[in-house]
Amino acid sequence: MQAIEFKNVSFSYGSEDGRSEVLKNFSLTIKQGSFVALLGRNGSGKSTCAKLINGLLIPNEGTVTVFGMSTAEKDNLFEIRKRAGMVFQNPDNQQIASIVEDDVAFGPENIGLDREEIKKRIDFALKVTGTEGFRDSQVARLSGGQKQRVAIAGAIAISPDILILDESTSMLDPKGRQEVMHVVRTLNKEKGMTVIDITHYMDEAVEADEVLILGDGVVKAQGSPDEIFAKKDIIAECGLELPRSAKIAESLKKAGLPLGDGILTKESLSERLCELLRKI
Amino acid sequence: MRIVAENLNFTYNKKSKFAVDALKDVSLTIEEGSFFGIIGHTGSGKSTFIQHLNGLIPVENGRLTVGDIDLSGKQKEVKKRYKELRAKVGMVFQYPEYQLFAETVFEDVAFGYRNFFPDAQPDEVKTAVFGALSLLGLGAEYLDKSPLDLSGGQKRRVAIAGVLVSNPEVLVLDEPVAGLDPAGKNELMALLHKLHDSKRVKTIVIVSHDMDEVCENCTDVAVFSEGQIVFKGKPEEVFKNVEQMNDLRLGVPVTSFLTDELKKIGVDIDTDFTQKDFIEKIASHYKNNK
Ligand SMILES: Nc1ncnc2c1ncn2[C@@H]1O[C@H](COP(=O)(O)OP(=O)(O)OP(=O)(O)O)[C@@H](O)[C@H]1O
Ligand SMILES: Nc1ncnc2c1ncn2[C@@H]1O[C@H](COP(=O)(O)OP(=O)(O)O)[C@@H](O)[C@H]1O
Ligand SMILES: [Mg+2]
Ligand SMILES: [Mg+2]
Known about the structure:
Chain A is an alpha/beta fold. Chain A is built from eleven helices and ten strands. The radius of gyration of chain A is 20 Å and the shape is globular.
């Protein structure tokens, strides 16, 4: 079964002032167990997609189904939200309880797990997000990045089948971003958790199995990172850019160094560069 | 206007069991004319430090002077100068567009001006608002728009215009490009450079988690860790410390990583780690040796 299916979805926020449609006859399938990076310029509809998936928004036309359940059926919403966890863009919108531990406990309690299991989930989530030290702290008194980690812990504690990260690592330090990506990747590999990572970091998108670009209300491109970052025209047209190492590689090639194609990471750039310069 | 901090200390929730030493003996000079980068791990004290610069957090212990304003003097005296200070040191918070509230772009930016010049005549306000918006590349067609109708990058620029409108000498921005798409990010950084180059804003201080961006754009860098400054200097000096920067959870720009890897195979490249310089140096090394 597909984890997520958008079928001919159209969506706009209210029509009073004739604002144009955010999604236009939009179709998309996301396979169970995949790790997808969702890209697109500001306002292209990424967060709207995320909210359509967990039924916070309902399409004007067409259907969104999560594991075969339509988000338009009210009776499905509890089950859908249990299975599709979401971390919002701004951690201040996510916070529920005032103490970190209670905040992380909210999800597992809400889905009716027993005490033992709840405790296990909280311990795990706090540990993997590096927030154990803040267990008894007040969320409001944490730094921006610390709040973001707590929000991620809250989603992980639910152990959802689908995890949607909506720019959830934007305030983390570089190591913190790597750590969160590592945890999420591990859950994806070991538990088959489907991941949708909405991000503006091209270096993060390179790590995904599949990259999706939103633009003009439709999917502009979908494919492996190699395929997507070879489409330079679409990348530019959609306000995106190449990963940093790919950009440097392009410039070095222009300056006459035969580095070859397909360089997307700093590791692969370093390998090719060392190989080339070692020989001379 | 020069900013000098000497042995600045700050503790949140003092006297409670939740006390957090957010700044420990922080000493730092930010020279007029610099484009200063503040970096450090999550919770290292960056935001706490910059909030001292315009009096949002009062000096508790240590010295801090901003131009001729001594913020570590008697609090009663210091408070009298807050308005003057805040007009001179503009502060842009994380995700500032969440604080846009007026019905039109004009009103939002005008609020920033009237805040400091309550007696200003309508014409004066208009001139200031037009000026600030055009500095950020937003033309007259934006004046009557609702901020809600703008893209993320445009909203961010309106929010920054609301701070620039009072003509600050120093502009402090906490993660100014977080959440912007790559095109918006590049545009905003270019605009900040324009403001700086034209001396419209003399000094710019940014907090960032993006090492490549800091290396490309900043004249000076300070690295915070657990409330202390562990490195300060030019980007090319700071980013030489590859191993330490990794341990500090920050890493280094791609150019510095590559320079370090090349060194391990005996290829020494002398670069300031800006992309332009790095590419030139590598290209000439290749041409000269092949
Ligand atoms: N209002 C507050 N009350 C209590 N403690 C706080 C408060 N704000 C921050 N802290 C604590 O002070 C320390 C420094 O926080 P600060 O916000 O300055 O960090 P930062 O470097 O800006 O982090 P980030 O990159 O995550 O934004 C952290 O340990 C944080 O938990
Ligand atoms: N609550 C809302 N009310 C009205 N318009 C909205 C709302 N949320 C988003 N929009 C508009 O919908 C479009 C898509 O926004 P969004 O999904 O947030 O984009 P992204 O996450 O890709 O930046 C934008 O034009 C935005 O201004
Ligand atoms: Mg969004
Ligand atoms: Mg901060």
